[in-house]
Amino acid sequence: MNQIPDTGTLHILNKAPGHPRFVACLAAMSNQDTLILIENAVLALPDTDTVLPRQTLALEPDLEARGLSGTAEPGQQISHQQLVQLTEQHPRIISW
């Protein structure tokens, strides 16, 4: 059986900044974890009051749907296909 290397936990967050689950997700993250912002969570990218982890990615279609395509750093936007690949690479996934 192939073992997936321990790359930390993949956190998939769909709540807007200020929502209790958004706050809980950020508090639960470790340095090895990756955060993916989807749906209303992408609103955190232009929010200068929100400190996001270094390993933060955002789903490109959700950014586009909210007019936020220009707010993500290069390499920070991911497609649905890349999201699926990340779920295959991480041994633990938490959806918030």
Automatic annotation (TrEMBL):
Recorded GO CC terms: sulfurtransferase complex
Signal peptide: none
GO biological process annotation, one example: tRNA wobble position uridine thiolation
Domain of life per record: Bacteria
Record-linked InterPro entries: DsrEFH-like, Sulphur_relay_TusB/DsrH
NCBIfam families tied to this protein: sulf_tusB_dsrH
UniProt name for this protein: tRNA 2-thiouridine synthesizing protein B
Organism encoding this protein: Marinobacter excellens HL-55
